[in-house]
Amino acid sequence: MITTIKQELFKFWHQRIPLYGVMALLLLMLEATFSRPITPRIIAQGFGLGQWTLLIIITLSSTFLSMEYKNNTICTMFYKSSSKSYIYLSKYFIVIGYGVFLLLMGLALTIFLKITIVGDKYSWNMIYQNHHSLLTTLLLNLIGNGLYLFFMVSLCFMLISIVKINVAVIGLGMAIGFIGNSLSGIIMTAFPNMSFIWKWNPLNMINIINQLPKPNNIAISQLSNLQIIIGVIFDTLIFLGLGYWLFKKRRV
């Protein structure tokens, strides 16, 4: 397993994927900084850190797996590795690790931008939206996005094994990531008597991004923080298992 991870990590780095992702995140965060007035909300959201990381990781997740088939290198990978599960999980953990790296780097940039541009105008200790301090809200946003990364990467890996078209998976991933919770809310509103079942649908788990820093969002998801975290972990494992099964059965 460790050998497979090293091989995949070398390939990941050799293709300059990390460099492109970092550059994209920096540019997008700087655009969010200078294109509008800076408010506590923008700081609490890390200058768009979560949504920018999500965009990058959705694109990367499907591309990193699908390119093996496009470049006809998948057979070589199967020959060199003793297990298909090692290949699949290695790619998964590399993408997850890179996503966490982007979040941490974005956090450092957020703190730098706050100190250099905003200064003392908004204190880290100020209470944001009557819930937590500004710094705590930022960190909870980061944790929510970090947990959601596990969910989203496993979903994208599963989708690329089903659809097999990179562009389609990127489109589906972005649609799910940005309007999935709204669709879930529509379903739960349309069938209120069945909300005890519908609240566990995977689209509802997207609310973890906003719910951890904003306790009032429990009314939207109808799940406690612990329940939604458990739901995210459960769905992640389901998508990961299904994705691997499809990957293993896919002809090369």
From TrEMBL:
Protein name (Swiss-Prot/TrEMBL): ABC transporter permease
Transmembrane residue ranges: 12-30, 42-65, 86-113, 133-160, 167-191, 226-247
Superkingdom of origin organism: Bacteria
PANTHER family: INTEGRAL MEMBRANE PROTEIN-RELATED, MEMBRANE PROTEIN
Keywords: Membrane, Transmembrane, Transmembrane helix
Record carries keyword S-adenosyl-L-methionine: no
